[in-house]
Amino acid sequence: xxxxxxxxxxxxxxxxxxxxxxxxxxxxxxxxxxxxxxxxxxxxxxxxxxxxxxxxxxxxxxxxxxxxxxxxxxxxxxxxxxxxxxxxxxxxxxxxxxxxxxxxxxxxxxxxxxxxxxxxxxxxxxxxxxxxxxxxxxxxxxxxxxxxxxxxxxxxxxxxxxxxxxxxxxxxxxxxxxxxxxxxxxxxxxxxxxxxxxxxxxxxxxxxxxxxxxxxxxxxxxxxxxxxxxxxxxxxxxxxxxxxxxxxxxxxxxxxxxxxxxxxxxxxxxxxxxxxxxxxxxxxxxxxxxxxxxxxxxxxxxxxxxxxxxxxxxxxxxxxxxxxxxxxxxxxxxxxxxxxxxxxxxxxxxxxxxxxxxxxxxxxxxxxxxxxxxxxxxxxxxxxxxxxxxxxxxxxxxxxxxxxxxxxxxxxxxxxxxxxxxxxxxxxxxxxxxxxxxxxxxxxxxxxxxxxxxxxxxxxxxxxxxxxxxxxxxxxxxxxxxxxxxxxxxxxxxxxxxxxxxxxxxxxxxxxxxxxxxxxxxxxxxxxxxxxxxxxxxxxxxxxxxxxxxxxxxxxxxxxxxxxxxxxxxxxxxxxxxxxxxxxxxxxxxxxxxxxxxxxxxxxxxxxxxxxxxxxxxxxxxxxxxxxxxxxxxxxxxxxxxxxxxxxxxxxxxxxxxxxxxxxxxxxxxxxxxxxxxxxxxxxxxxxxxxxxxxxxxxxxxxxxxxxxxxxxxxxxxxxxxxxxxxxxxxxxxxxxxxxxxxxxxxxxxxxxxx
Length: 755
Ligand SMILES: [Zn+2]
What we know:
By secondary structure, the chain is of the alpha+beta class. Helix content is about 30%, strand content about 25%.
């Protein structure tokens, strides 16, 4: 034993001398690059140019391509297949020569050889139904994906094309110059997947008795985006990163079974022929019904309709201008209702399509929710420019297209539903209808950036939900993302991550960006500056293709506020916010120069007295930290009063605040984010006051800062972010005196005693 002790002593002695040596020969500290959290985003953002300005607006040479589609579509309900012949007219508005065109074949994600199957690496799925299990493991994959019959030029000559997964390159016989247009034809068909079993964003739901509800999207070869930012969009469709699409005009004929009810993107030019005369009358009524929905195709009619399957067909014609996509829903089971919405001097129709399985929930809420959403979003961003907004009930779907979206929310078979189902359905309808603004009109590249549509939309959704029903349990509040931001760093990606590569799409693309915008509106900018800036962004990029930089820059430009620190922290890092009150010290007023003042005087070759007649604040007593009694004595106040009467007239003094107490509050910041400090101060008389310190308070010390506060009343408590507006991940250090958990227990005990 003894031997060992001696050894240890020697060892320690050795360490000590080593430590001393290194202290003596302390190396000169190394320099570092600019690590200020307030440095500008010069390296992160692209250099402004004539396409996209430094202010975040489209530049004077901004351009975008255009693609018009003429399509003849056949929906084969017997085989659950869809056939199409389309003519695409592509306009090269870019200043560049194009040697080939890229077309997106997103339906190929359903092909047996789709790479999305090969890049999945997450272990077994939660569950496999028989069809899914057979497809995945028993060598019977679903035969999905496009079958391309031909690609031909306007003169019916074959064109060379190469399919690369979900993309197809079409080789042009000659260079397509700037300003030119080219028309070509594609003929195709594919097997429609069962979206309830196979998942995905479109397909059919099968019902016993042989009926299917079709929600059809990503169903035709669509032009990829070519622009000044990415060139040709070249990210494969893996399933999560959504779509990058070109605006254009559509003229679409859709042939369905004669007994189907259909709606989709665009004006149905022959709706009257498609409805019975009774239904058409009800439709005309709905066009003027501003207060409540009118049922156009009733549940009784739909139930009658689904009993038999018609072998005849009919062809619907839909025309849409300036849309980035096209989708439709069709079934003989559909009930249809509609309501008129007044927007300025225009009327927009809110429409719902649902089968009886959705009732009574859908009849009661869907169209009313659509109408409310159109109004809320129009007020926030810009008036809804299309003539209608449709909500379609589709099991487990929540997906948006221009003018039409597919939404979940189904009551139990007996028609009852939980609060959760109701709220889920209202929330998803508001969200998906809201997507008409982001990204259907403010047309960001969803394949790259999930947050640009989902995050902005989740934020706008929150406000629209509160418009529909104050107190609605919305997501997207700052407190909703605390668990995510405080979670395992290995499973968090910065918001500025391509959408297929984020770990958790929900918080990453939806709630965290939404919470960030909420913080900007409620904490950093205030409603006036934020709302103007957000609206400006939406208006500037309406029917255009914005990038993250355009958003960041516009928000700063239109609010007159540098927000680089906010974008940097919230969007480019995974840092979290944690601010606390470390302690509070009392100060008193004295005329006795402090050491600091003496040093300053010395520098100017003066005595401290020669600095002039000054007041100094000094700490009362080191032991007064935390909860001590008030030690600011009458004498201190006397000093102050004397000083004031020496220097100011009675009249002047009458307008001064009667400041008696001086405090130094020490704020700590264990979190990596910089954030304004919201401090709620409680005084001895029970009154409260809110103090706001902008984020820039952290410029020179990222860990701890001090603030001197003079008050009339004694401070008895300070609470940081009392309304949880800043996603502070740790509330334990938010209160002074620091007795959070104890005090709850105490007050509980007290309540019990005073019972
Ligand atoms: Zn969404």
